[in-house]
Amino acid sequence: MKKNNGKPSVAVAGLRELMDKKQLTEWHRKNLKSKCSVVYTYRITTEVVPPSMQMIMQLRNIIAPALWFYTTNEKLPDISFNRSKDFKWTKSRNFRKLKSISEIRRWCAENGIPYITIWTLLNGKRQLTFNRIAAWKHLLPPEDWFR
């Protein structure tokens, strides 16, 4: 997983704090139960792997999803988000924004994003991933994928 100038995300910093206090395993059992292994949570906490979108969504009532994408040295925007159980990212602000761009091929070229990636995302052939949100952070604010 790429490091953000050596700074962890706000969410990872919170998990590291639990790890330092030796409370990560207990927190994991309470909040994630059997949805993923403690080892996976530890690997996320130590930034060996990024969190999956499934994990981000499972924890959305405890950790605001956008906090996984902002480092501890960045100013946080308004991070209100949809806590609904049936949340669908295809109804998010960013998805609607991409759908509304009339010349999406030109927009992709101007912003250095492969058109096929956006096309497959908009047409349901690909899913939104942690790495895509992180890579497009400068164009599409992470918090707007969860609104």
Keywords:
43% helix, 147 residues, 8 helices, mainly alpha
Give an account of the 3D structure.
It is a single chain. The protein is mainly alpha-helical. The chain contains eight helices and no strands. The chain has helices at residues 10-20, 24-31, 38-45, 53-58, 93-100, 104-111, 115-122, 130-135. The model has no long low-confidence stretch (mean pLDDT 88).
Short description:
The chain is mostly helical and 147 residues long. Helices cover 43% and strands 0% of the residues.
Blueprint (SSEs and pairs):
Layout: H1 10-20, H2 24-31, H3 38-45, H4 53-58, H5 93-100, H6 104-111, H7 115-122, H8 130-135
What's the total count of β strands?
0
Q: Strand share of the residues? A: under 5%
Uncertain regions: pLDDT < 50 for 5+ in a row?
none
Mean pLDDT: 88
Order of helices and strands: HHHHHHHH
Taking all Cα atoms into account, the compactness measure Rg is: 16 Å
Global geometry = elongated
The percent range for helix content is: 40-55%
Helix-and-strand structural type? mainly alpha
Helix segment tally: 8
Biggest sheet details: none
Termini, distance in Å? 26 Å
